[in-house]
Specification:
There is one protein chain. With about 300 residues, the protein is α/β, with parallel strands linked by helices. It is globular, with a radius of gyration of 18 Å. Helix content is about 40%, strand content about 15%. The protein has a single domain, classed as TIM Barrel (Alpha-Beta Barrel), CATH 3.20.20.70. Strand 6, helix 8 and strand 7 form a beta-alpha-beta unit. It has twelve helices and eight strands. The longest helix is centred in the middle third of the chain and has 18 residues. Helix 7 crosses helix 8, helix 8 crosses helix 9 and helix 10 runs antiparallel to helix 11.
Length: about 300
């Protein structure tokens, strides 16, 4: 199969990347990050999450961030809304697109959101109805698609069943997440073969963590399967609090470098992107997780 000529990156750093940071990050720093990502040419930025601050304290200021960012025409500013209350808060903040989150693993679903997979999908029904009423797009996530910290390997057929449900409920796109980063290129291709038989491939996205250093290889494998949307995180921010050793999302800078080398259009300015990553890494007081940024910044 020929590679896609264009790829859309979904930047998840401001939400998925920062949500597990222990140190408080100011609204000003979050706004600066989102604006820098917009300026670098990203067309989709997941800005925050409308969840209880008790569960995810770092996302408590999401409404303020949405109020202060400079919204660029043609850029989607999304948010995670795990329940109807979260959806209503997102709507009040002027969010035009939300995301919902299910797991391909029963054990992960129970430990992460205290309910079964089927129960979690049922909870999304009122969100989908409200979104339709208000003209809000909904993106779906499926976690643990290539492995679970509690169950081990996950059958692609199980992932396909969950992805099919989300698509049937009205999610315009379903992102398949390798939450603990154990996936390999062969397993990734098999996953998209199986899920792609149930959900059109142009409605699927890949979300890879780099725990085992396989994320870029898995993205290339996905490109070979005709996938043209990928989630990534500036400076490789983020991880999974429930997944032992999960080092974080693949760095957006590294994905753009890969795609540039393949002649695939992204509309993203790599140098501006590196600058945005170095800025937020400075705020966090640690080196960037992007290998490309480290190499460009060496010496």
């Amino acid at each position: 199969m020929s590679l896609p000529s264009q790829v859309r990156l979904v930047e998840v750093g401001p939400r998925d990347g920062l949500q597990n940071e222990a140190q408080p990050i100011s609204v000003v720093d979050k706004v600066r990050l989102v604006d820098a990502l917009s300026a670098a040419g990203l067309s989709y930025i997941e800005v925050g999450s409308f969840v209880s601050p008790k569960w995810v304290p770092q996302m408590a200021g999401s409404a303020e961030v949405f109020a202060q960012i400079q919204r660029k025409p043609g850029v989607t500013y999304g948010a995670l809304a795990p329940n109807l209350r979260g959806f209503e808060d997102a709507l009040a903040a002027g969010v035009k697109e939300v995301a919902v989150f299910a797991a391909a693993s029963e054990a992960f679903s129970q430990r992460n959101i205290n309910c079964s997979i089927s129960e979690s999908l049922e909870r999304f029904a009122p969100i989908m109805a409200a979104a339709k009423q208000h003209g809000i797009s909904v993106r779906g996530y499926v976690s643990c698609v290539l492995g679970c910290p509690y169950e081990g390997e996950i059958a692609p057929e199980q992932v396909a069943a969950v992805a099919r449900e989300l698509y049937a409920m009205g999610c315009y796109e379903v992102s398949l997440g390798d939450t603990i980063g154990t996936g390999t290129a062969g397993a990734t291709r098999r996953l998209f073969e199986v899920v792609g038989a149930q959900v059109p491939r142009d409605k699927l996205a890949g979300h890879f963590h780099d725990t085992y250093g396989q994320a870029v290889a898995n993205i290339y494998a996905s490109l070979l399967e005709g996938i043209s949307v990928f989630d990534s995180s500036i400076a490789g921010l983020g991880g999974c609090p429930y997944a032992k050793g999960a080092s974080g999302n693949v760095a957006t800078e590294d994905v753009v470098y890969l795609l540039n080398g393949l002649g695939i259009e992204t509309g993203i300015d790599l140098e501006a992107l590196i600058g945005a990553g170095l800025q937020i890494s400075s705020v966090l007081g640690r080196p960037t997780g992007s290998r490309v940024a480290k190499a460009r910044n060496a010496g």
